[in-house]
Inverse folding.
């Protein structure tokens, strides 16, 4: 069997569990081919389930260990990793949970999973040079309006209906207290970012969320401001100050 064929057969076995095409290529000792393969497959599934536990710790607590492990195992078989970095694994896990009938009455768990993977994605985003206050000093109003900007890749915006931040904070202690958390669904705009190698997250005003969403692709500062719905200079100034403080804006190389 050629190496490429062996690798393809091995990958197919890990996902399907069918060892017919692969077992003849496995050298048997105290275990025969299918038994030795089963050991590797169990390790494969177990390591990925553990990776999901590490990336979704509060989702794990909300679901309970047994249910989480069962859901995680099915997710692994449906969406095995496409990249070698396990700490990045789980991009589609929240969407997978959304389709589970048992969670239809607990949508806050899906929101939590989305938030937790946003933390993973923000932490592992590439480092980009941020627009600093010094860049803006001395620019005329016309130059400020035309300034090319783009939201930095470490800055992620989430729209959720559950009080995710309050739930997250409550689960950071051994005995969570949920008494003061209002679970009534409403719209939250959340910022998850990593300005200085440390994660930070907060709820955003809808105008700030709209500004940062408008800057997802390169645009001008004036265009992003026009789409954020801010009706006064004070609100817009507060949004830009937040963007500068948390290093949320950058420029593409071609624009610098």
């Amino acid at each position: 069997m050629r190496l490429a064929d062996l690798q393809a057969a091995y990958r197919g076995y890990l996902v399907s569990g069918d060892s017919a095409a692969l077992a003849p290529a496995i050298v048997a000792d105290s275990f025969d081919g299918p038994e030795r393969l089963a050991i590797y497959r169990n390790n494969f599934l177990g390591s990925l389930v553990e990776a999901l536990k590490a990336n979704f710790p509060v989702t794990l607590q909300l679901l309970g260990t047994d249910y989480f492990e069962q859901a995680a195992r099915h997710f692994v078989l449906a969406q095995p990793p496409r990249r070698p970095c396990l700490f990045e694994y789980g991009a589609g896990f929240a969407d997978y949970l959304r389709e589970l009938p048992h969670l239809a009455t607990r949508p806050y768990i899906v929101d939590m999973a989305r938030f937790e993977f946003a933390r993973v994605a923000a932490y592992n985003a590439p480092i980009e040079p941020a627009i600093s206050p010094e860049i803006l000093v001395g620019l005329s109003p016309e130059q400020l309006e035309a300034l090319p900007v783009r939201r930095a890749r470490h800055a992620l915006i989430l729209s959720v209906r559950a009080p995710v931040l309050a739930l997250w904070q409550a689960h950071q202690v051994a005995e969570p207290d949920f008494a003061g958390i209002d679970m009534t669904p409403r719209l939250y705009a959340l910022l998850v970012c990593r300005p200085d190698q440390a994660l930070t997250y907060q709820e955003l005003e809808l105008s700030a969320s709209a500004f940062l969403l408008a800057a997802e692709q390169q645009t001008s500062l004036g265009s992003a401001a026009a789409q954020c719905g801010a009706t006064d200079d004070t609100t817009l100034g507060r949004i830009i100050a937040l963007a500068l403080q948390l290093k949320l804006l950058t420029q593409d190389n071609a624009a610098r």
Observations:
- The chain has a mean pLDDT of 89.
- The chain is about 50% helix and 10% strand.
- Residues 208 and 239 are 6 Å apart (CA to CA).
